[in-house]
Amino acid sequence: MRPTHTAAATTLATLLAAAIVCAEPVLTESFEQQGKWRKSLRGKGTVELVPGGVEGKCLKVTSADQALAYWSIDLDPTRVRGKRLIIRAKVKLDNVVIGPQTYSTAKLHVGAIVNKKTRNFAQRFVGTRDWHHQVLIAAIPEDADRVVLDLGIQNGTGTAWFDDLSVDDGVKQHHVVSLRPAANTSTRARCWASACGSSPRARPA
Fold first, then answer.
1. Is pLDDT larger for residue 121 or for residue 202?
2. Do 134 and 125 contact (CB within 8 A), yes or no?
3. Nearest to 108 by CA among 147, 64, 162, 66
4. Is the pTM of this model over 0.90?
5. Mapping DSSP to helix (H, G, I), strand (E, B) and coil, where does residue 106 land?
6. pLDDT over threshold 90, residue 16
7. For 26-168, which CATH superfamily applies?
8. Mind spelling out the 3-state secondary structure of 111-134?
9. Torsion angle of alpha carbons 193, 196, 199, 205, nearest 10°?
10. pLDDT of residue 193
11. Are 110 and 148 in contact (CB under 8 A)?
12. H helix or E strand, kind and range, residue 109
């Protein structure tokens, strides 16, 4: 007797759940106080915590003359080596204009230093936009000596705000699971998803 639609879906969900290793938080930040963050400013600009964030204070970075204006923090390398970091933040932009280089923008940035050489990961943004979500994914090398997270503007102009920052360690390992037990249903059973419609015919591969 072939499995019912419900049984097939339950089996598949169970197998997928077994394959997932949940990410763990590395850093969460609401920017209510400076803490271990440090300011880097070269040129005419500002880096400050101000009222008016999503809730409470937020980070505000301005650059008036293509300054480098960063708010930076070191991440524990023993915690993040070999991990796929997922950095999420809410961002607001006001007239952020790109500078002389493609990287001369507002950004989320991670620098992973290995043997005095830096591997850069960045999510860049320009323009004017109200609060919205930005995400950066950074695959940290297994032999990283130092890992630095930066938020700000690098050699562009304008103003950027940052709030509700979170850094998760992604998924370093996973279990390989055969889906064969959940894939032994008939064509009709495999098409239980709404995308298949009501027709029992299989779609082309």
1. 121
2. yes
3. 162
4. no
5. strand
6. no
7. Galactose-binding domain-like (2.60.120.260)
8. EEEECCEEEEEEEEECEEEEEEEE
9. -130
10. 44
11. yes
12. strand 106-114
Burial class (CB within 10 angstroms; exposed 0-12, middle 13-18, buried 19+) of 194:
exposed
pLDDT at 43: 94
The token pair at 42 is 């070269």
pLDDT, one tens digit per residue, over 119-144 is 999 999 999 999 999 999 999 999 99
Residue 176 tokens read as 């390989």
For residue 194, report the phi and psi dihedrals to the nearest 5 degrees: -65, -25
Task: Give the pLDDT band (50/70/90) at residue 183.
Answer: low
What whole-number distance in Å separates Cα of residue 26 and Cα of residue 186? Answer: 44
Write b or e for each residue in 49-85: b if 16 or more Cβ atoms lie within 10 A of its Cβ, otherwise e. Answer: beeebeeebbbbbbbeebbbbbbbbebebeebbebeb
